[in-house]
Amino acid sequence: MLTIDRLTKTYASGDTALREVTFQIPQGQVVGLIGPSGAGKSTLIRCINRLVEPSAGTVRLGETDLVPLRGRELRRARRRIGMIFQEYALVERLTVMENVLSGRLGYVPFWRSFTRRFPGQDIENAYRLLDRVGLLAHADKRADALSGGQRQRVGIARALAQDPELLLVDEPTASLDPKTSRQIMRLITEVCAERGLPAIVNIHDVPLAQRYLDRLIGLKAGQVVFDDAPDRLDDMTLTRIYGAEDWSGAESDADAVDGDDAATPRMMPARSAS
C-alpha cells in the first residue's frame, strides 16, 4: 500500500507545487492522476520516487517512509518503485532484451552490469516478461527499430523486471495512436491486477482514464479537488478541475470498439511475497 500524508512541495522561488496532498492506494489499485498542466501531477510522481525532494509530509510504501531516506537506503527503496516513462527512456543502441534486463541493475554487482552478464534467473524472467507484453519475437532487435507502442511495452517489461511494489506511470499514451493507447492502458491494468501492484498513472486523456482506471484523483494548483470512481467525474467536476468548457460533446477514440485490438498474450503469475 502507498500512503501519502500532507505531502507539500514549495520551491526556493516560493512557488508551491503541492499543498498537503493526502491519499492512500491499496494493493492492486490503478489510480489515474488528472489535471491541467502545472497542477502538480509530475511533481507528485517525482516526490514519491524522490527525484524531487518534498518540503513536508510523508510518503509511505508499506511500512517505509521514503522521505527521510538517504544514500544506500534510498537506492534500495527506489528498487521497489517501477517507473514507466512518456518518452520510453530506452537505450536505443541496446537490444530489447538488454533494455529489459536494465531493470535489474539495482540488484546485481557493477561488474555484471558493466559486462551485461546477468544471472540466468534474471534472463529467464526477462524472456517471460517479453512473452507477457507480446515482444518475445523481438528480443534481439535494437530498441531504435521498434514502433512507439513496442517501445512502451519494453518500458513496461523493464519496470516489471525490478519486481516492484509500486508502479509510477508518466503519460504512457501521449505519443501513441488511439488503438495502441488502449492496448497499453489495458496491459498496464492487467499486469497490476495479476501482480497485486498499486499504480499511479499521470494521464491527460480523461475519457481513456475513465475507461480503464479504477479511481481518479484530480489535482488543481497542487491540491486534490477530486478523488473518486471514474463514473463520478461529472461535467461540474471537470469544470472545477480544468476550467469552463462545454464537456457534453467530449469524446475520445477510447470509446471505439476494442474488437480489433491485439490480444495480450498470457497471464503472469503473481509477484512473490518475498
UniProtKB/TrEMBL annotation:
GO molecular function terms noted in the UniProt entry: ATP binding
Subcellular localization: Cell inner membrane
Topology in the lipid bilayer: Peripheral membrane protein
Phosphoprotein keyword on record: no
Domain ABC transporter residues, every copy: 2-246
Signal sequence interval, chain numbering: none
Name of this protein: Phosphonate ABC transporter ATP-binding protein
